[in-house]
Predict the 3D structure of the following.
Amino acid sequence: PPRSAEVPADRLILLRHARTASNAAGLWQGHLDSPLDEVALAEAEATAAVLSGLLQPARLVSSDLQRAMATAAPLASAWGLPTEADPRLREVNAGAWEGLNRAQIQEHWPEDLAAWRAGDDVRIGGAERMSEAGERVATRLAELAEETDGTLVVVSHGGAIRMAVLIMLGIGATHNRALRTLRNAHWSVLWRGDSGTYSLEDWNHGPNHTTAPAAHP
């Protein structure tokens, strides 16, 4: 994928929020409204410095959760754009698993966790399936892209972006391990064709490629 040229105007840039303390501690977040930690603020600024040098988008939209909105803030400042908050771009609702680590989930829901690890489309914490979150986000992304004349930048969440991209590419939610979860403060690039079909041009790109991928959304 191209790395140095400007991103053309018919692209959709999907950016995962920067790190939170919950990410660092290995906790499931889901719809928990976790703030960015100090490391994340630097991540967000570094990502904004790179992306603002590559493109001037027509529109910036973010999940309404504060970790996404705070990641979008330096981009909004650099581009002189408002950040539109949209709850439909939230991460998968993880229900009873939110705020827990893997050991705690294993203790109370070992069968569901084993099924999730195997790639089964279970209800996370008894709430939302990954496929449902993917459909929710993919539907909204397609609507936003259709409404936007020019490059669209969206700040969202690792699991939600991965599932939405699989659906938009026609791969489908059943192949939910076909893409690794985006690293914090990294992005993907989708090209939207005249027919409304999408092609993946870049995945897991960012200012720092040394950070290990997150183990879960």
Observations:
- Residues 1-8, 209-217 have pLDDT under 50 and may be disordered.
- DSSP finds seven helices and six strands in the chain.
- The two ends are 25 Å apart (CA to CA).
